[in-house]
Amino acid sequence: MRWAVIDTSVYIDHWEGGRHEALLSAVRRAFIVRHSSVVLSELRRGARTRPAERLVDDLFRRAAVQWAPTAADWWEAGRLIRAIGSRRHWDAAKRRDFQNDALIALTARRYGATVVTTNAEDFHSLAADLGIPVLIP
User: Fold this and answer.
1) Residue 116 near residue 7, CB atoms below 8 Å
2) 111-124 as b/e, with b when 16 or more CB fall inside 10 Å?
3) Which end of the chain is more exposed for a tag (fewer CB within 10 A), N or C?
4) CA 58, CA 72: separation in Å to the nearest integer?
5) Range of the domain at 128
6) How many domains does the chain have?
7) What's 19's DSSP letter?
8) CA-CA distance, 75 to 70, in Å (whole number)?
9) Max intra-chain CA distance, the chain
10) CA 76 to CA 66: how far, in whole Å?
């Protein structure tokens, strides 16, 4: 069985707009879904209403297995951000925003997992540099 990590963007689209139900069903059938500690943190940080907090808390409780970046992933993220950011002429703010995407991608690569995301631009760059599979609806 293959592994998948669902990115923050997919959860937000699904919870706020009911989008990606068919995609999520297909992913659950084709993959074992593992949760990224980075994604869970991003979701918690952005949960600004009580119902949103409950959704994130429930997801966290159901996330029996969480994958977290290692020290080596953090180190490699710095290199990736510098390299991709220099190629694309990103400012410091964009490089800072890209850090979590890099950490999610590096963690997925360690396990041979596919990243499921709607953030096509950033994850296409990461897929090209890291050779990770990315599924974009």
Assistant:
1) yes
2) eebbbbbbbeebbe
3) N
4) 30
5) 2-135
6) 1
7) T
8) 9
9) 41
10) 20
Residue 75 token pair:
């180190």
pLDDT in tens, the chain (137 residues): 899 999 999 999 999 999 999 999 999 999 999 999 999 999 999 999 999 999 999 999 999 999 999 999 999 999 999 999 999 999 999 999 999 999 999 999 999 999 999 999 999 999 999 999 999 98
- Give the CATH number for residue 70: 3.40.50.1010
18: tokens are 């009911």
Q: What's the token pair of residue 83?
A: 């390299």
Q: CA of 66: how far to CAs of 33, 40, 91, 129, in Å?
A: 10, 9, 31, 24
- The predicted model scores a pTM of 0.95
Place of tokens 């390299």: 83
